[in-house]
Design goal:
The chain has 5 helices and 6 strands. By secondary structure, the protein is an alpha+beta fold. The protein has one domain: Arc Repressor Mutant, subunit A (Orthogonal Bundle), CATH 1.10.10.10.
Amino acid sequence: MKKEIDNKLKSKNIKPTAMRELVLQVLTEQKTAISLPELEQKFEKADKATLYRTLKTFQENKLIHSIEDGSGSLRYALCQDACQCHPEDLHVHFLCAVCGQTYCLSDIPVPKINLPAKFQLESVNMVVKGTCSNCKQ
């Protein structure tokens, strides 16, 4: 598994370090997006600034994307392997009103947005809110 983690980091031009490997391992195992405070709980002894810088490095190198789901804190999730975080790569996110988890709905692209002339699209954040399948049971 360590080799896979290192290869994923290297494929995004990120130098593997112990902390980066650990954070990527956690993100890989997550089924939902994770916030910085939630990540800090998993690494109680880690420096908060190091965790934040790790997430920023991952985001700048398009390994993860951030989600503004309306919960008050950014959440982070792994990008698809071919993702370049261009508007055409973006997908819908789902925030469960019951458990508060945010899910990537990778198979549902954000609808095309036709902006007026001379407007340039840089990012789109689409969050659908409701009850997830786990809470619905």
